[in-house]
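Format is chain and fold; as here:
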Amino acid sequence: MDFSPADLHIHSTFSDGTTTLEQIAAIARERGMDAGVADHCGPGSFQLDTDQRFERYFEAVSRLPVYRSVELDLGREITVSPGNLERCDYLIGGVHSLDGRDFFDGSLDWEDVPSLLDRMLETIEEKARIFAFDILAHPGLLPVNLRPRRGDILDGRWGDRLIGLALEHGFALEISSRWEVPSAGIIKRAASAGVRFSLGSDAHRPEQVCRLDRSLALARECGLDGADLFRPARQLAEKIA
């Protein structure tokens, strides 16, 4: 596996993380890895939900040798202006909810699983057309009550449809260390089709930053190399002292 890994999915105290931007930059330096901060962007008190909040975030993250991104909440309305989003080094899209129903609410029942899977893919496609995001975060993240059945629910047909969307819209599939998605089978089929990938910890705490053990293990297992990975075009500044 011939590449220098980068953790392109890290959250800071500007959304729901407990790690400051300065800590992220320092940890990335200590671990010899490039880092991308991608705080949540959507409605809600913990997200970047206005241009004013985005401006404060972007100004702060631009002072440090890290990539500048946001994670768009694809299931909800994005109220930060397109012009501001275009200033990011790359954009991440993630499905965390659908039709006002939060994937992290364990009290909700999701009985019609086929419809859920269709809505996930429809939402990804719709928002890819609008925002042209570069990376799809944690592909196959399911509502909390369905996660134990992930291996049965996310079948080959679903994976093939996901791969088709990635090829059509040009986004990379994140290999998520936190959520253990996508599966090796989907990664191998996607790589054969020409899809690119990114590596992400989805870190919310300092000890998670630039911890890509599962992502790297899967990349090795699936035979990926540097040509298979998405990297932002902007060159990072010197590492902080």
Observations:
- Residues 113-131 form the longest helix (19 residues).
- The mean pLDDT is 95.
- Residues 6-228 form a domain with the TIM Barrel fold (CATH 3.20.20.140).
